[in-house]
Amino acid sequence: MAPDEITEDLHARMPTADEAMILELPPGEPVVELHRVTRTADGRVVEYARGVHAANRFVWSFTYKIPD
Asked: pTM of the prediction?
């Protein structure tokens, strides 16, 4: 079944000690954690992804259709 829809949720938080070290963050620098779920037209989940990135503080959630 082909992917049809993606939902991505992002939220800012303070990094763990390991994340701060791996990402070489200065003290007090937040990270953004991304969770992505890709679904087929009938709602079946075909992908889940999680990423942690250095970033400013923000929260953002959006859903969009995958073009043909």
From this structure: 0.73
